[in-house]
Amino acid sequence: SLAQSDFEFVAEIESIEEMQVEGDLRNYVFKVTDEAGVELTVSTQDAYSEGVSLRLKEGSDVLLRQVSFDGEDTVFFVDAVRTPAIMWITLLFALVVIAVGAWRGVRGLIGLIVTVGILFAVILPLILNGHPPVLVTVFGSLLILAINMPLSHGLNKRTWVALGSCVI
């Protein structure tokens, strides 16, 4: 039968009841409390990946998926929440780029942000709305080039020649 409801939520591991190691994979059984205050027991054995290669501990945040089949709720482990670690790595990357590249590094980071913005705010929505993917990608790439080349290399004759060559 089809799932009647399916949603994901983040919970903190309150206690680890059991852990088994099989090669590189670890299977955990742990307790969490869901958003409604109900205590749940979750096993990573039932996860999509059938065991995890990471180490979970009490206090770790995990992403869980609750699925309801014919009125019976089942909770599956999806992944560990890695947002804080990703933010620290991103900050470290930006600091290294700025330290090595100085103002050119800052302009490069701005160009990277503009590129990601155009990709997710313009190119992907247009493609998902049914516009021709090749045309959207080509014109989106030209827009990215038109912004990033002068940003990275300055407004000079060589930059405009290079940009024109890319367009041609």
Question: What does this protein structure show overall?
Answer:
The chain is of the alpha+beta class and about 170 residues long. It has helices spanning about 85-130, 135-155, 155-165; strands at about 5-10, 15-20, 25-35, 40-45, 60-70, 70-80. Strands 1-5-6 form a three-stranded antiparallel beta sheet, with no helix packed on it. It has a three-stranded antiparallel beta sheet with strand order 2-3-4, with no helix packed on it. The model has no long low-confidence stretch (mean pLDDT about 85).
Radius of gyration over C-alpha positions, nearest whole angstrom: 24 Å
Assess the beta-strand content as a share of residues: 25-35%
Q: Please tally the helical runs, counting DSSP H or I stretches of 4 or more residues.
A: 3
Q: Which structural category do the helix and sheet elements fall into?
A: alpha+beta
SSE pattern: EEEEEEHHH
Tally the beta strands.
Answer: 6
Enumerate the strands of the largest sheet in spatial order, edge to edge or round the barrel.
1-5-6
Residues in helix, %: 40-55%
> Could you state the oligomeric state of the chains shown?
single chain
Gross morphology = elongated
- Average pLDDT value? 87
> Mind describing the biggest β-sheet?
3 strands, antiparallel
- Spans of at least 5 consecutive residues with low confidence: none
Straight-line distance between termini: 55 Å
